[in-house]
Write a structure and sequence with these properties.
The model is unreliable at 231-241 (pLDDT under 50). The chain is α/β, with parallel strands linked by helices and 241 residues long. It has helices at residues 12-23, 59-77, 96-104, 146-152, 160-167, 208-214, 218-222; strands at residues 2-8, 31-36, 49-52, 82-85, 91-92, 109-113, 116-119, 124-127, 139-142, 172-176, 180-184, 202-203, 231-232, 239-240. The strands form three sheets. The chain has a seven-stranded mixed beta sheet, sandwiched between helices. The protein has a single domain (2-240), classed as Spore Coat Polysaccharide Biosynthesis Protein SpsA, Chain A, CATH 3.90.550. It contains seven helices and 14 strands. Strand 13 (231-232) and strand 14 form a beta hairpin. The longest helix has 19 residues, at 59-77.
């Protein structure tokens, strides 16, 4: 059985988009735990287990608390063999779950290395050099690892993905990124990681790279830019807002 875990808060439009991307997955998931500490409740429409927490913590403390609550709830519920960390602001292709699940049948901790980031407000992108770990949004585990992962949660460390990949003593597998893109510069609660403060992203003024990476989902990603920019239609040359 396959479980999804998402920590969210004050990102209603992004979460709605995420539901669409999870509903189309080629591998069927069993349950989805959503831990929500937004000032307004997130609307869940796919039968998720929706856990509401009080807002007001710092971003790092919020992340640590939400993640721990979600993992402990997953352990309490039981019944799932695999847990996928699904983040509300990132893009997932239709075969994301299936691709990592194949690796999970042979390993305990799996993920996509060499992450790709795209800032939809700045129209710029970045290729990461993470050869030895996966971003949390592209990580999945066997449920037997939950106690070890909970023990590693520390609100002072916002790079939790690197922490678990370095510290966990288990069978690990990394594969080059294909089905996940970290989207930055979007409306809603600001993110934590380095990619949300780009310093060396490569300009992509016509969103050509975004279209290569996301295909038909590129236009949907651009709708959620924090500071939407006018774009010129390739067909007409007319500036669109």
């Amino acid at each position: 059985m396959i479980s999804l875990l998402t920590c969210t808060g004050d990102r209603p439009r992004l979460f709605k988009r995420l539901e669409g991307w999870m509903a189309r997955q080629s591998l069927e998931w069993t349950n989805w735990i959503v831990v929500d500490d937004g000032t307004r409740p997130t609307t869940c429409t796919l039968g998720q287990r929706h856990i509401r927490l009080e807002p007001g913590l710092s971003p790092s403390a919020s992340f640590a608390r939400n993640l721990e609550v979600g993992l402990r709830e997953q352990a309490r519920l039981g019944g799932s063999d695999f847990v996928f960390f699904i983040e509300d602001d990132d893009w997932y292709g239709p075969h994301h779950l299936a691709s990592l699940w194949i690796a999970l049948t042979r390993h305990e901790l799996v993920g996509e290395s060499f992450s790709r980031y795209y800032n939809v407000s700045e129209l710029s992108y970045h290729f990461c050099s993470n050869a030895n770990h996966a971003a949390l949004c592209a990580t999945a585990i066997r449920a037997t690892l939950i106690p070890q992962i909970v023990s590693l949660i520390d609100e002072r460390d916002i790079y939790f993905d690197r922490r678990i990949w370095r510290r966990l003593d288990c069978s690990k597998h990394l594969q080059p990124t294909r089905h996940c893109v970290g989207l930055k510069g979007q409306a809603g609660r600001p993110g934590l990681g380095w990619g949300h403060r780009p310093s060396n992203f490569i300009p992509d003024p016509q969103a050509i790279v975004l279209k290569e990476w996301l295909g038909g989902d590129a236009s949907d990603a651009l709708k959620h830019a924090l500071n939407p920019r006018p774009r010129t239609s390739a067909a007409t040359g007319i500036v669109q807002t």
